[in-house]
Structure formats: C-alpha cells, structure tokens
Amino acid sequence: MKIMIIGCGRQGGELAKTLSLNGSEVTVVDIDPATFGRLGPSFKGKVIPGSGIDREVLLEGGIEQADGMAAVTASDEINIVSARLARQVFMVPRVVARVHDPLKAEIYQRLGLMTVTPVMLGTERFRELLSFSPLYPIKRLGNGEVSIIETEVPHGLVGRTVNELMVPGEVQVTAITRDNKTGIPMSGAVFREKDIIHMAVESGSMERLKALLGVT
Q1: Is the pLDDT of residue 172 over 90?
Q2: Distance between CA atoms of 205 and 22, rounded to whole angstroms?
C-alpha cells in the first residue's frame, strides 16, 4: 500500500515507522525538515519538506497514487484542509485526520471525513481503567463509537440463546470461543459454561449490555 502522512511529530513519526515496517510504501510530509530525524536511519520511505495543504507538495509526494493518507500535524485546521484535499480533489480511498477539538471532529465526521480525537480516546480509556468493569474492550472502532468486547459467559446466560443477548443497532454477538475454537454463532445457538463471548457494542449501550449480562 502507498500511504502519505502529513506531519512528522511524535505520532506521525511513529505511524510512519510502523507502516513502513509492515510493508507499506510511506511518504512523509512536514514543513520542518528537522522533524524527519525522528524517523531514524532504518526508515525506508520518502520524506518531502513542505506544507500538507500545498497542491504541488502533495503531487510530488504521489498523492494521486496513494491508497491512504493520514493528516497528523499539530494544527486541526491544516489536518482538516489537507484531508479534504486528499479525499475530494485527489480521491484518495482512505483519509483520516487527527482533530483535537471534539466538536470539530463531530462536525467533520457528519460531512463524511474520518477523524481521530485523542482527547476523547484518552478520556474513554481513563474512564475504563477507573471503572473496575469486568467488560474490557479489546479494540475500538472509529473514534470509539463501537467497542469490541470479550468476556466469559456469565452463569445467568448459560443455557440461553445468542438471540437473547442481541439488541439491534446496539449489541451484536460476533463470535464465540469454545474449546479453543472460535466461530460465528447462529442466533439460536446456546451459550455453554466457559464460553468466551465476543461482541460489538455501541459506546452508549454499555450499561444496557451490563444489564443483559447481569454484571455491575
């Protein structure tokens, strides 16, 4: 995959190195050439000094052939503009912008721009660690709107069906691990003792899930 990263700060640099190590062809753009030093000598990608909202800089970086672009500069405005250029002008298939202001992030998500909000992600993680909840998200999708939850089946659900734990648009049982084998269950499948349940849950439905599972 060909990926362009706008901004070579701590997050942009780590993202570039990780993607490059995983086999992606990475191009990093930053207005300050000194930031490229954080990529280290093992980085095999391309670096371009310049602004992420400069059309010529984007073209030099191969934006027209890019499979994805991440805008992670220190400026929300630059991230949003460069992301919209990539998505609407150059038709890059996958574009993500880091936006620190949660209100701005919500507005641009409604306009179809994928955003990541560190403040919201960090706040939710702190809440989880302080809540002592037995339901630990193993992954978050988007900006945390949906969580993938993994938990051992509670005693009260043993003998009941998957369908009884499903709430359309809120809670979806995606898989069950049983005897070290994981599969996608039918809605009529029956929970057994020691099953591990994997669920996709909307962030606003965690309390409802706890009630369904009988946990606090």
Answers
A1: yes
A2: 35
